[in-house]
Structure formats: structure tokens, C-alpha cells
Amino acid sequence: MLSSLVDKSIVIREESNGVVRFRMLETVRDYGREKLRESGEDQQLRRRHRDWYQQLALAAEAEWISDRQPYWTARLEREQPNLREALEYSLAENTEQAAEAGLQTAAALFMFWSFRGLYSEGRRWIDLLLDHPAHQSVPDRVRALHAGCIMAVLQGDLSAAAALAEEGRVLAEQVPTPMTQALSAYADGTLAFYRGELALAVSSLERAVRMLSSNRQGFLYAGALAVLGAVNALAGDTKAAIECHQQLISITEEFSESLFRSTALWGLGVAAWRQGERSRAAELFEDALRVNRRMRSPLLAAMSLEMLSLAVGTKGDAERAAVLMGAVEELQRSMGNPSPILPTVGDHDECVRTTRSALGARRFDAAFRKGRAMGMDDAVAYALGEAPADTVPTSGATAALTKRESQVADLIAQGFTNKQIAAKLVISQRTAQGHVEHILTKLGFTSRAQIAAWIAEDAERQTH
């Protein structure tokens, strides 16, 4: 039946990187939904869809710390439109089953949202689901509150994070299971870390790690261990920091995991940096970048690139440091972060001042802009010394794009939203969004701002 629908072009078959997917034109999709509503089958189908994607998210969560991590990251990336549809229907139906499905799906996607830098999206869904009118179980609600708190912290929204942590703390006292208490301690410790309350952060996170340690393959245990290591490094307890990250390394080796391995290498680099072992630290940050290449997490790339910019700056290579700083800022912007992703573990502000002073304002700004115009992959290649800045593609921005994608890129550079692009080109908003996603993928970018900067620089070069 599917083959016959493809033959009639009612369903469209697409293949990318060996993965086959099927889609429908929007007009066909709308017609099908209209027929489903007329037949009275639409609600049943949407429930089946929601429940199937709930199980998919839970399966991904269960295998997150494993050699299946790359598969699940790519799978969830592809399934984002379907996952959004499932979460939307969880909000549309006023039943306990819908509330449970929504909260469990969102909590299961926490690691994916975090490592992909999708904080704004994750927080939006969690906030909406926490306001669901139907009854919610305390364990499900505490897990969602924890996820929302951590993502709010990572975006620097400490007031919102504090409110979520407080509600989680109250619920954990009402239903004091090991998991609710561990999640509450994890949230409290992370919030204290970003507030600079290091003693409280250490005690809370140590408690969370102890309670979560029964499941060494659980991502919550790995996450709490990683944050505890970072806190210990900043607090000056380098030995404890190294122990945390070495434990994390052993877990990632046992289960062939990548994202937390990159995190642990970064953490060991920070510990080496705090001990004054600058060359060793730089090597570890580079190793973290290499491991992350498999997963392409903008969060981990930004963390390591930021520390490498400090290492390069202290060696006197001011221009290289400025380029890396620009790349980091663009990655932060793409994730909705107004400030550094983690509390600074090096003399960041001093390094910026020194670098600007060494180059002069004009040369610093030019190098910084060059870094901002880089995609994540190009910035990593540059940081690893695989390509000088001049070889990073900064001209012919539209060469890799189709004619329609070039039109869309030009409109993005003019500040058009997807809705405005759709109206301008007389296409659907969904189609406009698809063009934007294809452009980001082709150019290796993570944000519309990078597209705009690249188009602007290309136009400037053509003018000269």
C-alpha cells in the first residue's frame, strides 16, 4: 500500500545518509486530516501517535548511556516534528493519561534538548505541560521540574530556575522517594553552582550522586557526577574534581558512550588548568572536541572552544583567541544563552581585555566577526589547527544552495521570520521552515544569525 501511494506521488519517499523517510505535501496532509475528522477517527489516531512517540522517547532515554547514543541522537533529531505533534496533543487532551504522557516524554527528552542546546524549546514544552489542568503524579512532575530547572540554569534564568527547584523540593518532601529526593538535590546543587554558592552546591550534588549511584548507566547519575566535578574544580578541590571525571570516563568506556566522555575530558582539562598545567589542559580540551565530533553537540563544542580561547590567549596568539571567542559567542546565541554556558573557570574577562588590548579594537572586532561567521564544524577544525581561518568557507555563501534556498537565505539576512518568508515567496510556513533547516544543515550552521552574517560578508566581498 505504501509503495502504491509513493507511485502515485501521494506519499513522497526521501533518503538522506542511508535513512529513508516518507512525507506528504501539506495540501495532501490537510486533506487527509479533514477526512479523518469527518470519519471520527482523528482523536484515536492522534492518541496512538502520541503514545508511540512517548515510547520512542522512553526507549531513547533508556539507551542514552550506551553505544546506541549516536543512533538515538540522530533519530530524535529527525523525529522532532513528530515529537512536537505528540507533545501538542498531550496538551490538547484534558486527561490524566495525556498529562502523564506529556511529562514523561518531555523528561525523557531532557538530555537530547540539553546536549543539542535546545533549551528554549525544552523549557517551553515543560512550562506548558506543568500547567496541564489534569492530575499529575508527583514523580512525573518532579522529573519535569528538574529538567526545566537545569535548562533554565543553563540559560542564565536563575529566578525561573529557583521557582522550579523550590516546587520540586516541596513535592520531594511530600513524596520522599529516593528519586524525588535525588532530583531535588541535583537541581538545588546546580542552581547553587551558578549562584556561586559552592559549598551548598558540593553538598547537594554529593547527595544526589550517592542516591543515583545505584544506576551507573543512568544519565541522571552521569549528569550529577559531571556537574559535581565542575563545582569541585571551581571550589579548588582539584583531587575531588579529577576523581569525579575519572569515574565518568570509566562509565563511558564501559558503555561506549560519547557525550559524557567529551564532558569528562573537558572537566579534566579544567582541573589541569586550575593546577597551572596549561599545555595539558589544552590537549584535553582538544580531545573533548574530537570526541564530540561524532555527536556534534553545540553545548560541548562551546565549552571546549571557550577554554581553548583562554589557553591560546595566554600563549600570546591574540588573533586566534579572538576568532575562537567569536565562534563561542555565536554558539551561545544559537542556544539562547546570553552569557557563558558555565560559570567561568578561567580568567575569561581578563583574557578578553588582554586580547583586545593586544590586537586593538579594529583587529579584535574583525577576528571576532570571523569567528562568529564560522559554523560549528569549521570552528572546531580551526581550533584543532586543521585549517587556518582564511580557509574556512567565508565566500560564495550561496554556492552550495539551490536557487530557492538562496532566496530564503537572503530574506533571513534581511531579518524576515519564517511566516514573512512564506508570504514573500508564496509558500507555506512549513515549507519555509524546511528550507531554513536545509540551509543550516548544508552550511553547518546552528542559527539564523550565522546565515545572516555569512550572507552579509559575501555581499561585502563581492562589492570589493
Distance between the termini: 57 Å
The number of helical segments is 25
Report on the biggest sheet: 2 strands, antiparallel
Number of strands: 2
Q: What are the secondary-structure elements, in order, as H or E?
A: HEEHHHHHHHHHHHHHHHHHHHHHHHH
Q: Output mean pLDDT.
A: 90
- In what order do the strands lie side by side in the largest sheet? 1-2
Q: Please state roughly what percent of the residues sit in beta strands, choosing from under 5%, 5-15%, 15-25%, 25-35%, 35-45% or over 45%.
A: under 5%
Low-confidence stretches: 393-399
- Which percent range fits the helix content? over 70%
Q: What does the radius of gyration come to? A: 23 Å
> What is the SS-derived class?
mainly alpha
General form: globular
How does this model look, in words?
By secondary structure, the chain is mostly helical. 74% of the residues lie in helices and 2% in strands. α13 runs parallel beside α15 and α14 packs antiparallel against α15. The radius of gyration is 23 Å and the shape is globular. About 2% of the residues have low confidence.
Outline of this structure?
Helix content is 74%, strand content 2%. It is an all-alpha fold and 464 residues long.
Topology:
Layout: H1 2-7, E1 12-16, E2 19-23, H2 26-39, H3 42-62, H4 69-78, H5 80-92, H6 96-108, H7 110-115, H8 119-130, H9 138-154, H10 158-174, H11 178-195, H12 198-212, H13 219-235, H14 238-255, H15 259-274, H16 278-292, H17 298-314, H18 318-334, H19 348-359, H20 361-373, H21 376-383, H22 403-413, H23 418-425, H24 429-443, H25 448-463
Antiparallel strand pairs: 1-2
Helix pairs in contact: 3-5, 3-6, 5-6, 6-8, 6-9, 8-9, 9-10, 9-11, 10-11, 11-12, 11-13, 12-13, 13-14, 13-15, 14-15, 15-16, 15-17, 16-17, 17-18, 17-19, 17-21, 18-19, 18-20, 18-21, 19-20, 22-24, 22-25, 23-24
